[in-house]
Structure formats: C-alpha cells, structure tokens
Amino acid sequence: MEYLTMLFAIVIIIIIMSASSELITKPPITNYHHMQMIMQWPPTFCGRPDKPCKPSVEMSDFSIHGLWPGNATGHTPFTCNVPENPTTVEKVWLNDRSLKNFLGLYWPSLEARWTDEKLWKHEWAKHGYCTSEIVPDVEYFNGAITFARRLKDMLKILENGKMGPKNHPAYTVMGMKTFISEQVLKDKNIDVYISCDHQRATSSNVFFLKQIHFCLDKSLNTFISCPKSTATRGCGRVDDQNLIFPISLRTQGSLIIKDRIGD
C-alpha cells in the first residue's frame, strides 16, 4: 500500500512539473504588433574598436542583423524566455542545405568571435522564440531570407539614385528614409526606421548609418509601414541630422571622415 501511495505521489509530481514547465516556456503570441527586419551596414558595425570583425566579412553590401518582434510604438522590447532544453533549432538549417547556404549569404556573423550558427541560435533564442506560435522556427528563418532577397538590390538602387556610400555627411536621416520608401519599397506610404552609430563621430550633429529597419506584418507576409515612434535609435532628435553612409571605416579609418567633416 505504501508503495502504491508513493508511486501515485511521484506521478502527481511529474504532472505538476510538466504543467509548470509548459507555463514557463510558452512564448507570448499576441503582445507584439509587427516584425522588424533589420538590415545592418557592415562598414559601420566593423568600424568600432569593440567589434572586431572577420577578415572575410563582405563590406560592400547590407546583411541581416535580426528579425525582431516590435510593439505598436516601434520599440523591440521583447526578450524570449527560451526553455533550458528547447527543441534544437539547428534542425532548421541542417535539414535544408539550400536554406543554410542562403543564411550564410544573407545572415552571416560579422564578429570574429561568433560563428554563423551561433548568431542564428542567438537571434532565435532572444527574438524569434517569442513569436514561435505564430511564426515557427522554419517560417522564421525562411521568412528572413525571403525578405532579404527582396531587398538584395537595395545598395544598387541607392547608388543609382546618388545615395550610395560616401565617407562624409552627404545625406540626412529623413532623406535616406524617404528615398528607401519611395525607391526601394516603391511606396512612399511605407515608412522605415534608420538607426545610427554616433560613437565615432567627430561632430555632435553627424551620425553614421548603422541599420535600416523594415517592418513586416506579424505573419511575415508583406512589408508594412513602421508605426509612428518617438525612439531616436541613436540618430538624434530630429530627422534632418547629417548622416554618413560610410564606404569602410575598418579599411580607411576615421581620419578620412574627420578631415571631410571639417571641410
């Protein structure tokens, strides 16, 4: 009798622990408004001394930083509570060699200390898992590649429109945002965000183009306009701030930029 009582108690404990585990690890599914496809500019990222990049990094095109859930004010405050032993996300690219090749092309790790796979797992754990009941892991990574491929000519469009990289403050934040909406997305009503790096600037009103944030619907079907937001994303309080879209800070150094700013 004591044996049966103990066995029953063990079964009850297991059931309670399983239920608790589901409550803890269940990702939020409704408290985000949109997804942000964040395309970073490697010369700015790799130009910082605290971000040593791989020598092999392609410095002449945008790459994916991440795909993050955002709220109705344009912020991306969500950090996922991934369970200790989640279903391995590596299966997504291990089971699809073509996807892995595209991830390596469009979503490479720039930092020397991180492998591509480590970056993908980090982005999934921190941002993707939050939305996994609407956008499961396979759809998350395939969706990122789908939209990256739709943006693959962005740099060419910028250059053809005389908005290409220059190591001096040739543009404004608003001018860059407007051009991307009208010429890259072909819809002036679809707003994007720009984020900047101000740390290497030699003037208080000059900012380096760091990232372009494209907003997508929650299910990753289409581009949508990013919501009105008071966040500056490192670009100062007004949209007419001078913007440097650098050619390469890593290879040419900040002295060139400093000289041109002083002109």
Automatic annotation (TrEMBL):
Entry protein name: Uncharacterized protein
Top-level taxon: Eukaryota
GO molecular function annotation: endonuclease activity; hydrolase activity
Alphabetized UniProt keyword annotations: Endonuclease, Hydrolase, Lyase, Nuclease, Signal
Endpoints of the signal sequence: 1-21
SUPFAM superfamilies for the chain: Ribonuclease Rh-like (SSF55895)
Family statement drawn from the similarity comment of this UniProt entry: Belongs to the RNase T2 family.
